[in-house]
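Handout, page 2. Input:
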Amino acid sequence: MGAGADQHRADLRNYVVVTGAYWADTITDGAIRLIVLFYFYERGYSPLEVASLFLFYELFGIITNLVGGWLAARMGLRFTLLGGLGTQLVALGMLVVAPASLLVVPYVMAAQALSGIAKDLTKMSSKSAVKLVVAQDAEGQLYRWVALLTGSKNAIKGVGFFVGGLLLTTVGFHAALAVLMGIVAAALLVVLTAMRGRLGQPDRTARFRGMFSNSRAVNVLAGARIFLFASRDVWFVVGVPVFLRSEQGWSFWQVGAFLAVWVIGYGAVQATAPRYVRDPDGRTATWLALALAAFPAAIAVALAAGVDGSVAVVGGLIAFGLVFALNSAVHSYLILAYADGDKVAMNVGFYYMANAAGRLTGTVLSGLLYQWQGLEACLWGSAIFVVITGLLSTALPGVRRAGRSTAGAAGAG
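Output:
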């Protein structure tokens, strides 16, 4: 009993270290995205070319979540966390030391690929760690902890957008990235000196094929997640920043500040989601998604009717963000509720592989649709994706029923 309590305290301490490192990498990730987007857009790159800079970021995120969950199961979450932070340093270093002649699309895509690997390794490590420090039968506590972690992460990513816009405005491209390198290096040092053990029990026998879930609940949720995050990034990655900068005349820091406030508010709602949505299950995910679809459609209609662009976009996307945050918080809880305790890292890795696939889809279409028909096309694409999310969510089971079916599938596998 005493040994179990000691292990729980050690896991909790490690979890705090993991979360702090994740926050540091999240600030950096948000800042890099804004810095790269505006640096190249201001140099005459088209919206589609700017979107292409992030293709490898999202593509390698898919691969990383798939392989990373397997590595975490075999090597422990400490291994994947250190790997993520180290990779982020390499990605930033590639951009810091490169002269202007090397800052071309293929080179930046390669650096962004490493950044995507880094972000998803740290995210998967932190999200998986929650399951290890919450009692197996404490579903209410698990929901609160997941909501707090996910919400705080998104709030901090919003800080990253603001930091990125501010640094690009005040110190320029290379110096801004050097500052971000310092943040990541500090986080890496803290993990190396303060973390003990591997956070969880590595399983050297874990097989890569186990990454592909046998649970219907996990598979359906992963499918819904693809379209949910495609619905956000189809306007978020290129459409809205370029629209505000080029068509509404906003400055770098103003766009960065808006995206920062949006993501911080979105994160705050996620963190407090248990106050507004209690005992979520598959039905909760369904009605939240169908409610969300109304917002991008309403913004698109407002723009077509001649409503002031800044008013329609800012007001509409604030409302979208509130409901999207509840959707995301419920999904983040459900994957851990559905996951089998012995395969949590692998289930979470599979789920976030789907998340990355949604971001990749949204990223490509954000540049393509904006270049084709402007922001309105991006918003209609968002509405369609959210409707698909809701339709898929109708197949999600209740938490208890999913827990039994997941365990049975794992035992059969």
